Here is the input.
Amino acid sequence: MKRGLFLIPLLRATVFLVALPALAGPPSGEYQIKAAYLLNFARYVEWPAGRLPAGAPLRICVLGRDPFGGALEGLEGRQVQGHEVRVRQVDNLDQAGDCHLVFISGSEERRMGPILRGLADRAVLTVSDIDGFVEAGGGIGLVIEDERVRFDINQGPLLRDSLRASSQLLRLGRQVFGAERGGR
Amino acid sequence: MKNRVQASLLVSLVLGCSAAQGGEAPLVDLTLEELARLDVATVSRKAQKLSDTPAAVTVLSAEEIRRSGARSVPEALRDVPGVTVSQIGSGRWAVGVRGTDGRFSNKLLVQIDGRSVYSPLFSGVFWEALDVMLEDVERIEVIRGAGASLWGANAVNGVINIVTRKATATQGGLVSAGIDDQGQPTLAARQGIDLGDAGAGRVFIKGSELSRSRTANGREDSDSNRGWSGGFRLDGAGSGADAWSVMGNAYHRNSRENIVSSSVAGFQGLYPIDFEFEGSSLQGRRNWGWLGGEASLQAYVDHQFANVGSYGRGTVDTVDADFQHRLAAEGAHELMWGLGARYVRTEIIAVTSILGLDPARRHSRVLSAFVQDEITLVPKTWKLTVGGRFEYSSLSRFEPQPTVRLMWTPSMDDSLWTSWSRAARTPSIGESDATILYGFRAAPPQAPFPAVATISSPWPDWNRRAERLDAFEFGYRRNLGRASLEAVAFYNDYRRLIGTHMDPNGLVFPGLPIPIPPYYAPSQSLYRGNFGAARSHGLELGLDLPVTSSLRLQASYTVMDTRAKSSSDPALEAYGRSIETTSPHHWASLRAMMNAGRGHEFDLVLRRIGAIGEASVPAYTTVDLRYGWRVGPLFDLSLGIQNLFDPLHLEYVSNFFPGQPAYQPRRGYLQGVWRY
Here is the structure.
């Protein structure tokens, strides 16, 4: 009997717990947001004309295991700066070198160094959510802070590859490294 | 009735919302500003990352550690499959992987940023001296199974790697203050330092006083644990594989526990022993690109001092250097190799006749080399890993520690793997050199003396060898949408375990002096050597299930059994029995993490731990509850209650220093974290 009485407040608490998310609206999936970021990076970064001629498709690639679970399909065929977005999954550096934006999956964490060196000077914007990606010489690192997805930018590799990040992108970055040479 | 209507209304509201989210205009159309404002349901990256690893690995992210409410490393490890964590007392823990629990789980290697905190004195970790600032921990990797081919000796049943965040990731300041229901405070502060182009640094300091245990009748015990730790870390702003870091730390802790003394001539009781721990370390690491691959060189010096009441003290000084090189992939091969050297100076000064060491000082050297090749047999489908570590230790001898792992990935979402590994556990200084007076036992009634002294010492002809394990594992991992499932079966065959044998010559006269007639007690020696053998097998299950974007469930279950080889020698038989009864046969946990929106979060853990030994520790069930509230962008508050429905339970009885059984009461704590 005593135990039964005790359970009532517990049940109430459970109802309360279930209720709260309904009021706040459910948060979105991490990789849905990250996929949307990829498209925005393509919007706010300018590739050299030789690398991305007018009207040519803009290739967004995932190197390694695809963590997006289909969220990237929504990017396929969209228009960005007059280019049509093509999404593909790639397995090696040769294929990745043909892409404009490469998302390096967490599965490649241990090979991150060789990958970044392999993609250097090929005008590829590298993006990843591997911890320490930007510090390791990656272009844009996605990080989760305060339950929100934010991004860090390393201007070093962008400038090296003649990729121009717009001021809006730089302004919204959580941390911008190598900014003084970027002429913000 | 009214409640039920409310509930169903709410349920439909929740479902409605989720459905709306699913069919809504895609996030893709949002601008950068809008994206940065979205709350995210964090999904573990574990599944994607780990589906590539032919080993039983669990990575606890900073977020999971925070949500667990853990205030120490052992607490954070509680719900990892295959891992048992039991509190022995104030700040004292028995942490075991796959059944080698105990206060000094001698088959588990623990490292912080690559620096070993495994003590060679007793082969184990002084958890009571380890006060890590969890706010600055990036992740804790728990590798179950023999990791010796990569990590070296003593990584027999598992490796725990505590990885702290880079200083470049901890810019700004942080103050964390907590208090528990006994009024014991914890205070930690960290300040990040911007070094401009050079990189970044941080300094931190933490002080804490931990809660006391209870005695069997619920009274407050007099055990205690308090102290401070502090340190710094610098990280270079390198790009590419070029990076460097320098870090150092220092700590001081006092811990008191009550030892149950064995009786002789009416003396028996509790003796408080005050432990004092002190230590410091300095470490540097450099990574650079080399021959198309990546190289790293790490070196550290480490000093540890422990004072055990008025009984003795021990010092360990370590110098370690480690080099690793991962070559660029060459065809189907990905090669990695490394070299390591370690010099350890130990000194144990025993003040009483209970403990004697010969020699009191030791200089030991370990030289090792490892190589590993990851071979892609069929792209994306079959992968073979062959590797080994070849180690020479002056405390044992040459120990090859090979591993062969095969992984089959039939689809993007499934992976099956199997492995055989061999690992070695070096004898500790204590095992190798100590003569310990265990105590006295009453002599048979007709004997001309009242008691017999039991003395444990190394077997005079002992050719010291490392303990050896052959481990076989079979694992399956599956991604089910966002959920992931893992099952690992293991079979361990231990040989050359360091156990004790009775001296075949029987009693030695006159033995030791005692204060009652006839003023002597003959002694019986127990000789230590590589006499033991055991086998264990078990199954570990883990499930990670994001039910909705705001509710995530994690479940784990482990069942295992250990059987030691039986012996006609009573001492060895007793040793075998003690290995069989160091851990529960099964344990399980269920964890729910709920994001209630507006910065409110609830975490609930339900655990069931089976009985240990022949019910010397009965089975118990606990429920822990945590409520976290992000009051503002810079301030977090959390309230935790442990053992919610359980006023008192016992988790472990210390096997090393037979302490008074320490019961764990219901506990509460309140913690605030400010960031600026």
About this structure: Chain A has one domain: 30-181. Residues 129 and 142 of chain A are 5 Å apart (CA to CA).
